[in-house]
């Protein structure tokens, strides 16, 4: 990506340059003579493979092109790729030969004569100050009938030579489309020979693309490719766009008096030169410029019939990303690279081959498999390559690979990778190979082979696995137990039951039995099912089996839907191990037995409070009769935690009776009451809203206060009248709750009542709430001028505190009427009146008041007024949300008004806190840092 | 059923339940006792926060990197200096083997913050050991691993919170509640922007071949590799930068799927299920010598109810959701609605509501009440599965991959299915 300051680089003085760090120096590649690193093998291979076999037309005579790549501005890394591409393109197609140079002397008239065309390859900032050279180039292209070709940055030259820019046909004005963006490209003229490479279709490209302006005009040239602005993906920030006509050309051709010009803005990203369509497009453009490819170049605007453009396709896939079949040379080069690849080594070519195998069809993959297998077998192939091949065979391998992989199972380092492949290769061959190596594999590898057999669930492996499970070598014994559990057949379970293992492997054996039994307990076969159930029951009730295993066994029984599940669960709920009891209670709602309600609710009283609470909570989600019977037992509990859980669980119910029960609990001034309030807030029963409102109408005292908070949190607009009425209740707590409720519930019609209330004697908490309610109510108006009018009227006759609140209200509205009213109040003749307004505006923190406060500060008649207004202004700016740049502007506006050092410090502090480019820039001018020694 | 509504209706913990210790005894100090498995980037941060939390006590720290374990021990010792002096605290154990932590009977819960290839085995073993679990996202390295983890947790009844902490963040909660309560109308479009690229700094620039290195003496590299394929040691492949290698992770995509995408599943209500297809999948992979995950990617995730979530590394980072009545853009720091009315709108308490509790505190509350945390393992599994499916599509060269979310199998793509599992290096086994 181009650094935005690249045009400034040349003005950096030498002295400054010496003080730059090496890193910054690297950016300063502004002068010619840049040394490009050699292209990587993979890049060269990709360039070669993207070349067309032959030119569209044979050249009329041998053609020579000056490929010129001098940079006096930004240096594109892709210059190296482009030079290589044009060299190879000429050599391979015979369409031309090249001389590559960055020496201005190449444009000396005598030298230029040697060429048939000049190609500006990403030249930047060329000045071409020599008049003779300028004239020579003009003559060359215009009079002598030669060609000019521009690639990408070729429009970024001749800043002080308009004729030069005009010759190219346009000049660069930024690149709103960045190098990483995938942009939609349209063909303005799908059938034109110079864009025939794209097959008459628009496309997407990952490329930096230019905005072209200056001498560019469709009246002067034939535009062949441009950005497809019908796609929203191509739209950019209008601030970055200079052109108003939405015309962003990419490639054009034009005729001069006797010569021809071809320009294409493709060529920033190196992979553009590895994309066949683009390289063909370049070749066609070059051949047009050379005069070999006949093509129409009447300026676009002069065409009698405008061609129908080919827009970008719906699917956004960059041209570079479209999978392509490699040619034979490239494929061979990849294989060769793979043959010598080791971990940590150059992976470009290996990755390219892998990418190809991803996209290849069945035939391509089969060939791939055949081609990499010999490398896998060869001892000379490095470990990294063989490991990589094993991984790929995991994706594309077939029975064909099995023998080669099998051979690796005895190799210490490669056995594991071979298992990675064998485990994925479908078919009996891989099964058989793994089975053969259950015993043959080296000790270190055997667990992996056993694991693979288990993962593939090879039923015939049970006897062999049972034998291995009895091994004295712990890793393979454990692996075999796991594998038997994974296979999970009746035979596997049978084998597991018969096993005797050392004590410390008993846990693994138990889990394997559980895994098998949990599968078999779902079986329709009665005897298998019985066997599994009994095994699970034994595990669940085995005090020594560990809490998780016992719970897991109980869970498997519950999931099986067996009617005997309760027989197992009930004792576990009473288990002395608190974990077992609580965790079984958590999974118990899965029980489907008909008598579960009766059995569990009877049992409730005999359980520990912790287990009761968990049972209540877990059953609450079932929302059925069983849940209700357990919950009602919980409500009767002597334990406050259990009752709390049960009350909250009632809130989950959709039953009207439960809602009434909760309302009844509200009067209790304890945790039960609190829990009931919370439950009512959350209750989603269809009748809940109405029941709560009815109760509110009849209630008084603490219950009324609680219900007001409930309707407020429920955002129940139908309860607003009740809240308004309650603002005059005799009970303090009810009045407080009513005001708090109005913060959320106030509507437009409540505004007069709220204003009236604000002028009465209020407690601090009520006033605060009603102030917020006033804002809620005024926000409900569609036209903000309406509440503004009402508030302005109310100002006359308001108490001082009432006035403050109304001013804050007006400030938060920010409507034209509110603004006018506030501005006029700031003109009041008495300084104290003005200060009152300033204070109120400051406390509102409304974004819109900054203008008013700044004016108040500017027009202040007394220092104290100025100080007050500026402080309010700066506080408001500091708290403001929104774009950082706007904030910087606001601080900047205050700077001339800041007379005292502390005011300046606040501005500087605020700007430092923003810490973006704009604020740093401003800080440099406002408070230049003294340079560090 | 349980999973679908867990986020919404987990009860507030105003009920003070007692800590359930082991064997029916309440832990002496009523503190939840913790073991930290992995104290690097994420684990170290969680541990430092926990060290200052009076509701917990750290008894063990585990890391394969001795330096990290020592640093963690220093933090714990510093935090508990007073308790140690009074004899109330007996000291913190350090180890490089997580099994040592799981074997301790006095530890209630473990915090597992290891590279992705080390998620499944420790979580399953912790569930078997009866430990409550706080584990980092993405849930697992593969879909079958994730399913096995969900089973292990759900069948043994342990509490398990996954570290998709945006579920406990205010901006996301506000956006999720607004959408779920219908404030934005019918959902028209959902876009999730995740980071792309690979490692930062110098490691981003590695292109030249590199020679293998020798692991430091206090780094148990074999244990670090664990079930993952053997590979020569490079410092650049371990710790934070594990995530750019398919052997250990799934790149930026699987790293971030558990954040913005996870939040999008809550907004659209598809968190309890998996997609029916991944479409329009495309990706470019890192090609340097050390890293190989996708650095640029885009795809769309299609659900059975018609929900579509678009994901790309070049969308605006966060979630953009457009509804018929308005839109919202949300990141960790901002939630921007399309109108001031929506911006200041409240949601009713009887509607979809999330608890305003810190992510770790939510875990601690759930330990006490035996409830499902805000990011239950089943949801985390569904979220992570999307990254694995997208990666399988990328890696098998498919733009579309169909999926059966009930049986969790790919449809008509046997080769992609082969990319959804991993074999373990001997002697490691995924417990059944």
Short précis:
Chain A has 933 residues and is mainly α.
Fold blueprint:
The complex is a heterodimer of chains A (933) and B (432).
Chain A (H helix, E strand, L loop, with lengths): L13 H6 L2 H6 L13 H9 L14 E5 L9 H16 L3 E5 L7 H4 L4 E5 L9 H13 L3 E5 L10 H7 L2 E2 L9 E6 L15 E4 L5 E2 L8 E6 L21 E7 L4 E5 L11 H15 L37 H12 L8 H12 L2 H16 L5 H14 L5 H7 L6 H8 L5 H13 L5 H10 L6 H8 L4 H14 L2 H9 L7 H15 L5 H15 L6 H14 L4 H9 L4 H10 L8 H9 L4 H12 L4 H11 L4 H11 L5 H10 L5 H12 L5 H11 L2 H13 L6 H7 L5 H14 L5 H8 L5 H16 L5 H11 L4 H14 L2 H10 L5 H14 L4 H10 L4 H17 L4 H11 L6 H14 L2 H10 L7
Parallel strand pairs in A: 1-2, 1-3, 3-4, 4-11
Antiparallel strand pairs in A: 5-8, 6-7, 6-9, 9-10, 10-11
Helix pairs in contact in A: 3-4, 3-9, 9-10, 11-12, 12-14, 13-14, 15-16, 16-18, 17-18, 18-19, 18-20, 19-20, 20-21, 20-22, 21-22, 22-23, 22-24, 24-26, 25-27, 26-27, 26-28, 27-28, 28-30, 29-30, 29-31, 30-32, 31-32, 32-34, 33-34, 34-36, 35-36, 36-38, 37-38, 37-39, 38-39, 38-40, 40-41, 40-42, 41-42, 42-43, ...
Chain B lengths: L1 H8 L22 E6 L3 H11 L4 E7 L3 H14 L1 H5 L7 E3 L2 H5 L6 E4 L7 H9 L3 E4 L7 H14 L3 E3 L7 H11 L6 E7 L27 H5 L25 H18 L8 E9 L8 E9 L5 E5 L5 E6 L2 E5 L4 E3 L2 H5 L14 H11 L7 H19 L5 E4 L4 E3 L2 H4 L15
Parallel strand pairs in B: 1-2, 1-4, 2-3, 4-5, 5-6, 7-10
Antiparallel strand pairs in B: 7-11, 8-9, 8-14, 9-10, 11-12, 12-13, 14-15
Helix pairs in contact in B: 2-3, 6-7, 7-13, 8-10, 10-13
């Amino acid at each position: 990506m181009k650094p935005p300051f690249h045009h400034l680089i040349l003005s950096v003085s030498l002295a400054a340059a010496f003080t730059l760090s090496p890193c910054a120096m690297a950016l300063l590649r502004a002068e010619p003579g840049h040394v490009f690193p050699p292209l990587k093998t993979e890049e060269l291979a990709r360039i070669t493979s993207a070349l067309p076999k032959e030119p569209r037309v044979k050249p009329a005579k041998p053609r020579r092109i000056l490929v010129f790549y001098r940079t006096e501005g930004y240096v594109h890394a892709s210059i190296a790729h482009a030079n290589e591409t044009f060299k190879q393109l000429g050599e391979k197609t015979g369409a031309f030969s090249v001389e590559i140079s960055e020496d201005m002397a190449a444009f000396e008239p005598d030298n230029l004569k040697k060429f048939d065309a000049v190609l500006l390859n990403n030249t930047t900032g060329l000045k071409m100050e020599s008049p003779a050279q300028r004239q020579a180039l003009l003559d060359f292209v215009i009079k002598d009938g030669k060609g000019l070709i521009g690639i990408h940055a070729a429009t970024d030259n001749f800043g002080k030579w308009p004729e030069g820019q005009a010759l190219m046909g346009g000049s660069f004005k930024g690149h709103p489309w960045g190098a990483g963006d995938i942009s939609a490209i349209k063909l303005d003229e799908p059938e034109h020979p110079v864009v025939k490479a794209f097959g008459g279709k628009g496309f997407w490209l990952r490329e930096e693309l230019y905005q072209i302006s200056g001498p560019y005009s469709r009246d002067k040239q034939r535009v062949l490719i441009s950005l497809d602005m019908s796609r929203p993906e191509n739209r950019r920030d209008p601030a970055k766009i200079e052109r108003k006509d939405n015309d962003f050309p990419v490639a054009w051709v034009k005729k001069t008096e006797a010569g021809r010009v071809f320009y294409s803005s493709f060529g920033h990203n190196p992979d553009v030169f590895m994309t066949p369509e683009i390289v063909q497009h370049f070749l066609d453009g070059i051949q047009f410029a050379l005069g070999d490819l006949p093509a129409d170049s009447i300026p676009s605007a002069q065409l009698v019939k405008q061609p129908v453009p080919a827009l970008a396709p719906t699917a956004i896939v960059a041209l570079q990303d479209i999978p392509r079949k490699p040619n034979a040379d490239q494929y061979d080069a990849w294989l060769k690279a793979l043959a010598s690849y080791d971990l940590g080594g150059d992976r470009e070519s290996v990755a390219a081959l892998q990418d190809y195998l991803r996209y290849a069809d069945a035939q391509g993959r089969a060939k791939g498999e055949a081609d990499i297998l010999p490398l896998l077998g060869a001892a000379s192939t490095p470990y990294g390559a063989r490991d990589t091949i094993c991984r790929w065979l995991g994706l594309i391998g077939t029975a064909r690979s099995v023998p080669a992989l099998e051979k690796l199972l005895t190799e210490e380092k490669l056995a594991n990778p071979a298992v990675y492949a064998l485990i994925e290769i479908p078919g009996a061959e891989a099964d058989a190979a793994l089975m053969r190596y259950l015993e043959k594999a080296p000790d270190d590898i055997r667990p992996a082979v056993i694991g693979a057999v288990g993962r593939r669930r090879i039923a015939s492996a049970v006897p062999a696995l049972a034998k291995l499970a009895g091994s004295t070598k712990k890793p393979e014994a454990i692996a075999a137990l796991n594998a038997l559990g994974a296979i999970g057949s009746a035979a596997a379970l049978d084998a597991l039951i018969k096993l005797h293992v050392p004590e410390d492997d008993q846990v693994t054996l138990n889990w394997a039995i559980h895994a098998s039994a949990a599968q078999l307990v779902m079986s329709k076969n009665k005897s298998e099912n019985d066997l599994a159930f009994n095994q699970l029951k034994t595990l669940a009730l085995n005090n020594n089996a560990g809490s998780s295993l016992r719970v897991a066994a109980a869970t498997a029984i519950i999931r099986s839907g067996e009617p005997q599940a309760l027989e197992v669960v009930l004792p576990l709920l009473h288990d002395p191990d608190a974990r077992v009891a609580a965790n079984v209670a958590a999974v118990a709602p899965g029980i489907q037995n008909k008598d579960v309600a009766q059995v569990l609710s009877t049992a409730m009283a005999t359980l520990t409070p912790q287990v009761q609470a968990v049972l209540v909570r877990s059953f609450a989600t079932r929302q059925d009769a069983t849940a209700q019977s357990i919950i009602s037992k919980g409500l009767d509990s002597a334990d406050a935690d259990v009752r709390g859980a049960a009350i909250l669980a009632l809130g989950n119910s959709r039953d009207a009776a439960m809602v009434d029960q909760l309302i009844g609990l509200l009067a209790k001034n304890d945790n039960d009451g609190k829990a009931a309030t919370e439950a009512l807030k959350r209750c989603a029963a269809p009748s809940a809203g109405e029941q709560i409102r009815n109760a509110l109408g009849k209630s008084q005292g603490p219950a009324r206060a609680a219900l007001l908070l409930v309707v407020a949190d429920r955002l129940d607009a139908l309860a607003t009248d009740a809240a308004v009425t309650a603002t005059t209740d005799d009970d303090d707590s009810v009045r407080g709750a009513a005001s708090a409720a109005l913060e959320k519930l106030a509507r437009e019609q409540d505004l007069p009542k709220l204003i009236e209330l604000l002028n009465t004697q209020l407690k601090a908490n009520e006033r605060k709430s009603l102030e917020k309610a006033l804002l809620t109510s005024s926000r409900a108006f569609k036209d903000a001028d309406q509440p503004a009018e009402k508030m302005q009227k109310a100002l006359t006759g308001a108490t001082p505190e009432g006035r403050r609140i109304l001013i804050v209200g007006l400030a938060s509205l920010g409507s034209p009427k509110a603004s006018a009213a506030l501005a006029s109040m700031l003109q009041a003749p008495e300084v104290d009146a003005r200060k009152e307004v300033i204070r109120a505006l400051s406390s509102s923190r409304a974004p819109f008041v900054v203008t008013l406060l700044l004016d108040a500060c500017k027009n202040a008649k007394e220092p104290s007024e100025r100080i007050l207004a500026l402080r309010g202004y700066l506080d408001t700016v500091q708290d403001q949300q929104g774009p950082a740049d706007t904030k910087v502007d606001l601080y900047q506006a205050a700077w001339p008004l800041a007379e005292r050092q502390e005011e300046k410090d606040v501005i500087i502090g605020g700007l430092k806190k923003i810490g973006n480019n704009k604020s740093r820039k401003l800080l440099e001018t406002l408070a230049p840092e003294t340079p560090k020694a | 059923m349980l999973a679908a509504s867990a986020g919404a209706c987990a009860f507030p913990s105003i009920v003070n339940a007692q800590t359930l210790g082991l064997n029916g005894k309440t832990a002496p100090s009523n503190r939840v006792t913790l073991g930290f498995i992995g104290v690097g980037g994420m684990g170290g941060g969680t541990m430092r926060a926990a060290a200052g939390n009076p509701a917990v006590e750290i008894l063990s720290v585990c890391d394969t990197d001795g330096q990290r374990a020592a640093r963690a021990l220093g933090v714990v010792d510093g935090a508990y200096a007073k308790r140690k002096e009074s004899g109330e605290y007996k000291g913190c154990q350090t180890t490089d083997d997580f099994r040592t932590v799981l074997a301790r009977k006095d530890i209630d819960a473990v915090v597992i913050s290891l590279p992705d290839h080390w998620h499944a085995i420790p979580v399953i073993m912790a569930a078997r050991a009866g430990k409550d679990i706080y584990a980092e996202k993405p849930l697992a390295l593969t879909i079958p691993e994730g399913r096995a983890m969900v089973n292990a947790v759900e069948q043994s009844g342990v509490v398990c919170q996954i570290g998709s902490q945006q579920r406990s963040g205010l901006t996301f909660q506000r956006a999720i509640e607004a959408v779920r309560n219908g404030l934005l109308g019918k959902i028209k479009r959902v876009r999730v922007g995740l980071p792309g690229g690979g490692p930062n700094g110098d490691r981003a620039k590695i292109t030249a071949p590199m020679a293998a290195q020798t692991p430091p003496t206090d780094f148990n590299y074999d244990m670090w590799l664990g079930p993952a394929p053997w590979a020569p040691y490079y410092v650049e492949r371990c710790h934070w930068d594990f995530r750019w290698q398919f052997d250990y992770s799934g790149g930026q995509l699987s790293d971030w799927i558990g954040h913005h995408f996870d939040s999008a599943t809550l907004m659209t209500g598809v968190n309890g299920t998996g997609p029916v297809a991944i479409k329009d999948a495309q990706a470019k992979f890192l090609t340097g010598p050390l890293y190989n995950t996708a650095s640029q990617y885009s795809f769309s995730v299609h659900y059975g109810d018609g929900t579509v979530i678009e994901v790309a590394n070049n969308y605006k980072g966060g979630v953009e959701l457009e509804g018929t009545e308005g839109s919202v853009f949300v990141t960790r720091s901002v939630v921007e609605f399309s109108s001031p009315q929506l911006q200041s709108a409240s949601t009713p308490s009887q509607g979809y509501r999330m608890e305003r509790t810190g992510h770790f505190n939510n875990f601690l509350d759930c330990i006490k009440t035996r409830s499902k945390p805000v990011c239950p393992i089943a949801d985390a599994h569904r979220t992570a599965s999307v990254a694995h499916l997208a990666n399988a599509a990328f890696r098998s060269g498919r733009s579309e991959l169909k999926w059966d979310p009930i049986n969790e199998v790919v449809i008509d793509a046997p080769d992609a299915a082969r990319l959804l599992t991993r074999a373990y290096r001997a002697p490691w086994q995924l417990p059944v």
